[in-house]
Write a structure and sequence with these properties.
Strand order of the largest sheet: 2-1-3
Structural class: alpha/beta
CATH superfamily: Response regulator
CATH architecture: 3-Layer(aba) Sandwich
Low-confidence stretches: 1-9
CATH topology: Rossmann fold
Order of helices and strands: EHEHEH
Length: 86
């Protein structure tokens, strides 16, 4: 993981953003994981479906998630709506 100096005089960077990578294609997940890590973003975890992402998210507590598979996006929206109701 690389770190870059801040343009405001080299202040120490804050904690890395933690992302849950969700995609049903393992090769794509791996490539996205590599790009994110090279950009200084930490990978909280990986899931191959929206359902799996919803199961993992409470334990992993990611700051964000990436989801490119349409079924994953629908499941995440449904899970978000359910979380908002609780």
């Amino acid at each position: 993981m690389s770190e870059t100096a801040s343009s405001s005089g080299g202040a120490a960077p804050g904690p890395a953003l933690r992302v849950l990578v969700v995609d049903d294609h393992r090769l794509f997940r791996g490539g996205l994981r590599d790009v994110l890590e090279e950009s200084g973003i930490a990978i909280a975890g990986e899931a191959d479906s929206g359902e799996e992402a919803l199961e993992l998210a409470p334990a992993l507590s990611p700051d964000a998630s990436s989801a490119s598979a349409r079924p994953a996006q629908a499941a995440i929206r449904e899970g978000s709506a359910a979380s908002a109701r609780s």
